[in-house]
Amino acid sequence: MHQIKLTTPSGNTEISVGENLSAGLKTLVPTPVLLVDEHVLCEHQDSFDSFQSISIPSGERYKNMHTVENIYRELVNLEIDRSSMIVGVGGGLATDVAGFVASTYLRGISFGFISSTLLGQVDASIGGKNGVNLDGYKNIIGNIRQPSFVWCDLSLLKTLARKEYISGIAEVIKYGAIWDVEFLKYIKDHMTGLLNLDLKVLEHVVTVSAQIKVEVVQKDERESDLRRILNFGHTIGHAIEREKKVMHGQAVSVGMVMAAQLSHNLGLLPASDVDIIQNLLKAAGLPFELELDPEVIFQNIRKDKKKSGEHIHFVLLDGLGKTLIKSISLSELKPMIDDLC
Ligand SMILES: NC(=O)c1ccc[n+]([C@@H]2O[C@H](COP(=O)([O-])OP(=O)(O)OC[C@H]3O[C@@H](n4cnc5c(N)ncnc54)[C@H](O)[C@@H]3O)[C@@H](O)[C@H]2O)c1
Ligand SMILES: [Zn+2]
Predict the structure, then answer these.
(1) For residue 115, which of 189, 201, 202 has the smallest C-alpha distance?
(2) Given the DSSP bridges, would you call strands 323-328 and 137-144 parallel, antiparallel or unpaired?
(3) Tally of domains in the chain
(4) pTM tops 0.70, yes or no
């Protein structure tokens, strides 16, 4: 088992990565109430059945205030008070919802997460962003509060749908691309093990990814600057996600190739490094190109921009493992997108 500490102004988290961690829940004090993703509850009854638990419906359309309200009511009915601890169990959706509920119920009670998806373990469960969607706007209601622990239980990944698992690999490759060339090489050399859920490989990959996210969040919890680098591939990725029926990781995969290509076009990244990223994504079974309408992609980026201010902070690669955030105006971006599509 590996452990990592996250220390921020809004709280500290002990992150553990290993096998069968859920078994340790029994020794957790005080008695926890679990907020569990419905599929995880169904697939892992033995691990979670003996606890008081509330099911979180699966699917982005249920990630809203209605679900949050229902959970508050169940907590009241169960007479959960400040001496209790809430444990969110599931992927990014369940931990985002559980973190929001726990940090607002009774003005906030202590909470932790057991993360059950690859994306959750390397990304969503770490960093303290909790929240829900409203009227199609993703994660627009929320807060930043750190859970006291995050357990990345690798054993839970065995029941995760294959496409969800592969989607998570896109975020893993992202960490290598933006932060750590050695890690990128490790992923390349151990891709077969990673795809086969080899525990040794998985433990290393989840630990290093979590460590990178921790380093970035510790330096910039509130996304004023550095934390933006985690959005590599996401500006275009989100625009693709709005348009095409593809999963987050698939959209980000194409978004990363396009951002790498743009970095090359701007003279920052050699073509051979664009190929390295592209080949790695391909080896993972992720898409590296899609038929895209440049006008639609541009309009989608514009809609996202409405939420974030005047300029787009585009994350580019200034060589592999290094990033450069370029502030790009819409008029500058349009021909770039035309070119990339
Ligand atoms: N807070 C953050 O910093 C942050 C970062 C990235 C993403 N997110 C959020 O994370 C969410 C996406 O997370 P995700 O990709 O983990 O998806 P998810 O939580 O929706 O889970 C994907 C699917 O897998 C199922 N599932 C989860 N674990 C399973 C397991 N072990 N076995 C079988 N089925 C399992 C779920 O029921 C669901 O159907 C989005 O809502 C996104 O906004 C948050
Ligand atoms: Zn992402």
Answers:
(1) 202
(2) unpaired
(3) 2
(4) yes
